Every structure is written in structure tokens, then in C-alpha cells.
Amino acid sequence: MAFPRLATSNLPTATSEETKNTMSPARGAPMKNQILQKLRAPEFVHAWQFWFEKGQSTASAVKAESADDYASHVKPLGDDDGKIRTIRDYFQITNNFSLSENLKARGDSVHMFHLGVKPLWEDPRNARGGAYYFRVSKDRAEQFWEQVCLMAVGDVLQAAVATNRNSFNDEITGVTYSIRWNAVQIAIWNRDADNEAGIQRLLETVLEELSEEVKPRRKEEYWYKAHKAHKGFVGAVGN
């Protein structure tokens, strides 16, 4: 008994895309590289760095310090000196650093700044700038902080203050979480205190992006202040 034969002589030639889709999967090193590439988290537009600052016990001690003394209290936080380039790096630090356990005294602070920028007024990229300050109750502070940090690493804050000046395409320099007597002060630092339109857009963006449960209740809970308006600015930066 003869078996019927499958006719293949008149079949169309497979396209390059069809050939690609039916190829055997990569093996060995090529397969490993493909998998790692798919698993690798995309990098942030800007690299960041976490810093820890231990507050001083008395106001008089703070006043007596020089700029160098103050800077000595600010140290990189976490592995790799607190440097983060991806969202995985970010959560690697934040998931292993408890704010409530490590920040207890007035002035204890955590900063997240662009890599290469120190959380100090005298840093050249901060000297002409200022910060938007938010006074947040302690029960809402950690959630508020996380949302602001994610806005920062996601470049949401930078997009709010963006201008046509190429030299300020990284105007948002960092964010700070600092313990106060009966609340937490969260600050968003920018490079140019004269960028009034950008600063206003920054506030509008933050208020729009924050979840309802952590949004400020009153206007008295947030304000902008140029660094040079602080009493200790001249001593830290000089004339």
C-alpha cells in the first residue's frame, strides 16, 4: 500500500521574521546573556546617592561648628557608598534601613542626592539654590518620603522645573528627610532659587502626585526658602 506524500515544492519561502521566530533558543553563554539582559532593571536618568546625618545634641553645638565640622557628620549610607542607579538599588537600601529605628533625635537625617552632589549648602551645585520644605506629621512622614523619593528618581520633579538652560538640566539636586521636635521636615533641593516659575511648578507637581492620605492639610505646612536666607549660610559658604 502506497502512502501519500506531502507536497512541499510549491510552498512560499519563509520570511526573515518567520525564520527568526522559529529559530532554536540561544544556549550556553548567549542564553545567559539574553536572560540577564531581560532581568536587568533600566538605569535612572541620573545616578543618586544616599547619605546619613547624625543630628547634634544641642543648638549651641551646631552654632559652634565650622562648615568642615558639620560636613563630617554627613556620611554615605549603605553598600557601595549608598550609590543607586536602578530601582533595585533604591529598594536594596530603603528596605534595609528603618527610618523609625535609625532616626530618633532632632536633626537626624537621611538625604538622597545626585551622585557627585553633597547635601550641603556649600556644594557648588547647591550654593545658588534653595529648597521646598514640607512639615509632615510623623505618622505620615515615611509614606510621604517614599513618594517624594520615587518622584525624584523617576525624574518627575526634574520635569516640573525643567528650563531651556542646558546648564540646569539637573536642577533638582536632592531630597532630605529630617527629624524635628514634633514632626518630620522633608525638603526638595533645587539649584536655582531665582527660577520662580519652575519652583511654582515643582510645588504643583508634588501636590498633584502625592496620594490623598499624605497631602498637606494646610498651606502653612509647606514653604520655599533660598539657602542664602538661612542664618548659617555665610559661615558655611562664605561671601
From TrEMBL:
Q: Has UniProt tagged this entry with the keyword Transmembrane? A: no
**Taxonomic superkingdom:** Eukaryota
Listed A to Z, the keywords are: Initiation factor, Protein biosynthesis, RNA-binding, Translation regulation
Q: Give the record's GO CC terms.
A: eukaryotic translation initiation factor 4F complex
Biased-composition ranges, Polar residues, are 7-24
Q: Which Pfam families match?
A: IF4E
- Listed SUPFAM superfamilies: eIF4e-like
Q: Where is this region: Disordered?
A: 1-29
**Any idea which GO molecular function terms this record carries?**
RNA 7-methylguanosine cap binding; translation initiation factor activity
| InterPro entries per the UniProt record, alphabetical | TIF_eIF4e-like (IPR023398), TIF_eIF_4E (IPR001040)
What is stated as this protein's family in its record?
Belongs to the eukaryotic initiation factor 4E family.
- Name of the featured protein: Translation initiation factor eIF4e
Q: Which organism is it from?
A: Delitschia confertaspora ATCC 74209
